[in-house]
């Protein structure tokens, strides 16, 4: 019987992927806090993994053509954040909010990593018979 890692990991691997991507987006917002007209971005789990409508399926009219899928826009579900109080230079980054979201995302990453680690440890024990 084959092991299905997708079922065994119960989505924790996808959550780690999402948390890593969100950390990069939030860090980019923090890095651009003083950039005029910079618009703060964020990403949600749904927008990252359920953006089927943004995919472009390439047509194939010959058996020698390569089948493929392309992303439109290529932003992987990035959304603009609604500012609570934009600055005069048009920048919408709120440093307190960004730092709080980054810290929250970091804790959630650690939690997902811990769950995934325990899943893998359980699989190792089951395979080794201990």
UniProtKB/TrEMBL annotation:
<keyword id="KW-0969">Cilium</keyword>
<feature type="domain" description="Flagellar basal body rod protein N-terminal">
    <location>
        <begin position="20"/>
        <end position="39"/>
    </location>
</feature>
<keyword id="KW-0282">Flagellum</keyword>
<keyword id="KW-0966">Cell projection</keyword>
<comment type="subunit">
    <text>The basal body constitutes a major portion of the flagellar organelle and consists of a number of rings mounted on a central rod.</text>
</comment>
<comment type="function">
    <text>Structural component of flagellum, the bacterial motility apparatus. Part of the rod structure of flagellar basal body.</text>
</comment>
<dbReference type="GO" id="GO:0071978">
    <property type="term" value="P:bacterial-type flagellum-dependent swarming motility"/>
</dbReference>
<comment type="similarity">
    <text>Belongs to the flagella basal body rod proteins family.</text>
</comment>
<dbReference type="Pfam" id="PF00460">
    <property type="entry name" value="Flg_bb_rod"/>
</dbReference>
<protein>
    <recommendedName>
        <fullName>Flagellar basal body rod protein FlgB</fullName>
    </recommendedName>
</protein>
<dbReference type="GO" id="GO:0030694">
    <property type="term" value="C:bacterial-type flagellum basal body, rod"/>
</dbReference>
<dbReference type="InterPro" id="IPR006300">
    <property type="entry name" value="FlgB"/>
</dbReference>
<keyword id="KW-0975">Bacterial flagellum</keyword>
<dbReference type="InterPro" id="IPR001444">
    <property type="entry name" value="Flag_bb_rod_N"/>
</dbReference>
């Amino acid at each position: 019987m084959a092991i299905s890692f997708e079922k065994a990991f119960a989505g924790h691997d996808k959550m780690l992927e999402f948390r890593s991507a969100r950390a990069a987006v939030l860090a980019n917002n923090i890095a651009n806090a003083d950039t005029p007209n910079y618009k703060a971005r964020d990403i949600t789990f749904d927008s990252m993994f359920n953006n089927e409508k943004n995919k472009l399926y390439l047509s194939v009219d010959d058996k020698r053509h390569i089948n493929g899928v392309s992303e439109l826009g290529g932003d992987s579900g990035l959304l603009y954040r609604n500012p609570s109080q934009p600055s005069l230079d048009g920048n919408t980054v709120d440093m307190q909010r960004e730092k709080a979201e980054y810290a929250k995302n970091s804790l959630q990453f650690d939690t997902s990593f811990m769950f995934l680690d325990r899943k893998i440890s359980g699989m190792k024990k089951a395979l080794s018979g201990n």
